[in-house]
Amino acid sequence: MMKILVTGGAGFIGCNFVRRALRVKKDWKIIVADALTYAGNLENLEGLKEKYNDRYDFIKIDIRDKESVDELFKKEKFDGVIHFAAESHVDRSILGPLAFVETNVLGSVNLLEASRKYFKSDKSRFLHISTDEVYGALGDEGFFTEETKIVPSSPYSASKASSDLFVLAYHKTYGLNVVITRCCNNYGPYQFPEKLIPFMIKRALDGEPLPVYGDGRNVRDWIFVDDHNDGTILAFEKGRAGEVYNLGARCEKRNIDLVKLLIEKLKACLKDKKDFKEPEIAFVKDRPGHDFRYAIDPSKAESELGFKPKISFEEGIDLTVKWYIENEGWWRRIISGEYLEYVEKQYGGK
Ligand code: NAD
Ligand code: DAU
Fold it and tell me: Which of 24, 138, 149, 336 is 20 to 30 A from 329 via CA?
């Protein structure tokens, strides 16, 4: 049995990863380590202990706390770490960058230090989940490759770029067995309703205007979360030590087109509900430093790892819209005082 630590496993991508990996990697024992911040939710992992028993455990731990991290690693002797835990929302990083430095930089270095000291063997691997945002913005043309210069724009992406550099430095300096993946925008079930897709669905269902930043022409490159997670497993198992792999599904959309598509999907799903009214789109003040376009070239992951996304955008969006309609209780329970305060700070009365 391989003992794998998954940090951030109670968040959006992490919880989908844990569910998938427990299903397909029968020789893995997964220990989830998560601080349960506003974005982490134990409900996302419900039923796993009962179903997988000895192959699954959860520990509440803050990766900023070096002593607790050291203690855990000393005790468990991991065969691998898959590091999802992060402060992940760009707009929050603009409102308050420090938490991003603490978790994404310091927290990541705490994990690297513990890995270097207490990993079970030289074969134990540290997979760092990074983002295409470290490459900054593209214009109308071109794609991000692994060779693209690192020029992050937001405090979030600067903190992720910094942690990437530490990960690579630990490989060069200490020979730690590391791999980095950089994925594009994920969507799917369990995404916290602050990110574009679930936020717009929630607003539409609540009859609120949909705030599109700037003129809505910014482009994001989308991937269904399970496809990202299949790429994560491949990178963990087949990636070359010290290498970076871009993950993406070649699926660019302008924000405004995506928001209009979501409205159409919601209208189709809710055609029998008389109280659903078509929401209005409100163009609001742009995000400061808003990257214009992201577009991943995943050729290296395709050729070296055999990475191949399976879910089309049409299928993935249908599944996601349906999930949010059917799981209204899940996102309503999340909308606490903290959420309302954040939305007020970020969007004012709009
Ligand atoms: P998320 O915000 O939904 O979840 C983050 C998780 O990390 C939460 O469970 C939270 O409780 C946990 N966490 C935060 N601070 C912690 C700390 N100090 N100690 C322990 N746990 C802590 O994020 P997500 O969207 O699932 O993203 C996961 C990872 O994937 C991040 O590293 C992010 O940078 C990266 N990523 C995200 C996307 C995307 O589109 N969402 C795309 C590419 C890469
Ligand atoms: O590219 C990968 C990154 O994707 C990840 O590293 C981040 O963790 C993740 O949050 C995501 O970052 P983005 O900033 O691209 O995602 P977000 O959902 O915040 O915004 C997507 C686009 O939609 C972006 O161009 C901003 C725009 N937007 C977003 C919100 C929340 C709006 O126009 N209105 C909104 O209310």
Answer: 24
Ligand 1 pocket residues where CB is under 6 Å? 8, 10-14, 34-37, 39-40, 62-64, 84-88, 103, 107, 129, 131, 160, 183, 185-186, 192
- Residue 42: inside a domain, yes or no? yes
Confidence at residue 349, expressed as pLDDT on a 0 to 100 scale: 66
Q: For ligand 1, what atom is nearest to the CA of residue 160? A: 34
- Tell me, yes or no, whether 212 lies in a domain: no
For residues 244 and 178, give the distance between their C-alpha atoms in angstroms, rounded to a whole number: 9
Low-confidence ranges of the chain (pLDDT < 50): none
The alpha carbon dihedral of 116, 118, 123, 128 has a sign of: negative
**Rounded to two decimals, what is the model's pTM?**
0.98
Let me know if residue 341 belongs to a domain: no
Looking at the domain assignment, is residue 201 inside a domain? no
Reported as a single tens digit per residue, the pLDDT across 277-306 is 999 999 999 999 999 999 999 999 999 999
264 has catalytic annotation: no
Compute the distance from residue 186 Cα to the ligand 2 centre, in Å.
10
Active-site pick, 132, 164, 227, 252: 132
Q: Which ligand is nearest to the CA of 133?
A: 2
Its domain, for residue 124, covers 2-190+223-251+290-310
Distance CA 114, CA 110 (A): 6
Give the pLDDT score at 175.
98
Over its C-alpha atoms, the chain yields an Rg (Å, rounded) of 20
Give residues (CB < 6 A) around ligand 2. Answer: 88-90, 131-133, 184-185, 195-196, 199, 211-213, 218, 220, 255, 287, 294
Q: Domain holding 135: CATH number? A: 3.40.50.720
Give the contacts of 263 (CB within 8 A, at least 6 positions apart).
204, 210, 278, 279
Give the residue, by CA position, lying nearest to ligand 2 atom 3. Answer: 185
| Residue carrying the six token digits 């989830």 | 32
pLDDT confidence of residue 350: 63
For the stretch 193-215, pLDDT in tens is: 999 999 999 999 999 999 999 99
**How many structural domains compose the chain?**
1
Predicted pLDDT of residue 145: 98
Could you say which ligand is closest to the alpha carbon of residue 181?
1
